[in-house]
Design goal:
With about 475 residues, the chain is an all-alpha fold. The chain is built from 21 helices and no strands. It is found in: Cell membrane.
Amino acid sequence: MIFNFGMMLSMPTIVLGALHNRKSEALWLDDDQASWFGSILFATHPLGSVCSGFFQTYLGRKGSMLLVNILFFVAWITLYSAQSPLVLSIAALTMGLGIGFDEAPLHSYIGEMSEPHLRATLCALLVSCSWAGALLMYLIAYLAPWRTVALISSAVPIFTIICISQIPESPTWYIMKGRLNDAQKSLCWLRGWTEPDVTQAEFEQLCGHIKKSSDSDQEKTRAEEKYEAVPGSNNEKETFGKAEGLLKTKFRELTNKKLLLPLRMVFIVFIFSRATQLTPMGPYMIGILDDFGFPADSKLILFVAGLSGFAGTLMNILLVRKLGKRKMSLTSQGTVAFCMLLLGVYCSFFDRSNRILSLTWIPISLLVIAGFFGGLSMALLPWQLLSEVFPLKGRGVGGGVSAAYAYYVSFAMTKTYLYLEHWIQLNGVFFFYGGITLFGVWYLLRYLPETEGKSLEQIETYFTKNYDKKEMFSKPRRSAA
């Protein structure tokens, strides 16, 4: 599924490379159309993210993921058969909506079904798969036309549906619905097809945590939702009352301080993550690389930089349990900030008009290093936090809103990039994002808790008044086996 995410997120680069200002083609896009097509996927993602928080409450994590892959298949076929810019935009809109809808239940499922010492590794593996999907798309695009690429890609959601149908629903969702037998069966399956007595202690702990989360505030919310229907009363009014109660419930969850504090942190970390990855420059990166005056093919350099980022995500999988998220994120953020500032210095003195061939290795090396260290942590960190820091009550809504926010930031930054570059030039852009990234080092050092190897219940306490500051910023000496 995440592999498909990477393929869809890289899709605009491939399509625009084939259609942007190609007036000799039957279907082509001008500058304005290309600008919207390149960013519209980010714009529709938030709507899907917000909706997912509501749908997964009723469909479950697994049910939501099955449903959205049907949407992905339709989107790929629509792209393959597109004969106009409008249909291309509809395909991109559908992809963005589907990605947004799917991310919250996916990350909720990971957080709920995995053991504490495996959550970060699984999240890192997901981002690595996304990166691998993008790299595969670039590779296929070298070998086949963009329509063929879209047709081949349509097989991925079909395969994903088959795979998801073989896994159980989240045991947490089952418990919240009162289906304890199904929850225990699910937990046994997830722990390696074990017997109930093997997982009994963990099952009881999970039930206790969920029961504890159902505090007096939840009881108050349930009381407000309750509608005492009078015999013979208007059914339409009753339905409206229930819908209004649902909205009140979700609004109360979203405005709960237990959710707002981690939500604020995730929002801020997403900004640093987008700046670290140079997300706004992504759709225009080939032109930017051309401006550097590299003697090599810009597409090849872009692929190598992406490959280094993929290697960084794999390194995260190997090191996160040993080093923890704080150390890795600070190293990642600091190194990328240094590379960006040096790129700004380079662009201040050298461009295509006065390049020195013997020095072109400098920006190439800096981009590759930035790609590796960006993938090492900051590309992963906000998504890892997404499956860890939110309380049980409101986890679905919090995850959906966070994912929506992330892509709204991506849309806004990508859409305004050309204006920013025109205003402060390319060197100013690198200085600007380098400064944001450098500020991120200070923020992470001061506020980011160490969540590696800790239970979800323990992490929740870090956003309350009663927490151990030393424990908050330290990694457990021994992770659970």
